[in-house]
């Protein structure tokens, strides 16, 4: 019995008989489904902030809001929504660049401590606001990689350890040489991820707590991007997490060639 969803069947008649050729199209069907799900997710993610921007700007344009404080609040909401849309678009561009992989990224020696500090600078406000303590006292490691990709990888993993932490929590970052490559460990004392969700957090747009993710500037694409970068470098990633105790992400990246 042939499953017509899975196989495309080609029949060709030649002089001395019939040839049947079965081609497995499961992968292409799956890819097509993923593509259409992705577009519907992106449309939905963009629609929400756009509706809110349209609503507030209409009210401001009609001049119905007289109160200066209210006007200010609406302008700030518009700014927040624009920021969230631009983060989403940047993440989509990053994913599409990683997926096409036709342009080889420039690989050069990177000082890992410097990149961690660069990442932390962008979270200064968040760290102070929630009194989160950062620990990273590792010896500097030099790794050949693409600056934008390695920065994005660390930014997403460390960013999550900060975003999903508790007030007065801790984030511990360790990077060390492992074989020819390096091992990155990011550990937090945050809210943790329920067991049932642990496999799914690497899927695009999968969030355990949508409200918290959005409120902290998440796009739902961070770990999907990390997974892509890790597989691009032929590395491995593992996640351990306990609800209300914290999460540990471990990434091992083998040595790369300089270009
Ligand atoms: P987001 O942009 O929403 O942070 P990610 O792809 O980076 O998206 O992560 C997916 C989801 O996994 C997050 O929405 C969050 O629910 C959960 N998550 C990721 N990292 C952590 C962490 N360190 N602690 C707790 N939950 C996390």
UniProtKB/TrEMBL annotation:
Signal peptide: none annotated. Coiled coil: none annotated. Residues 41-257 form the Histidine kinase domain. It comes from the Bacteria. It is found in: Membrane. This is histidine kinase. It comes from Allocoprobacillus halotolerans. The chain holds residues 303 to 561 of 561 of the full protein.
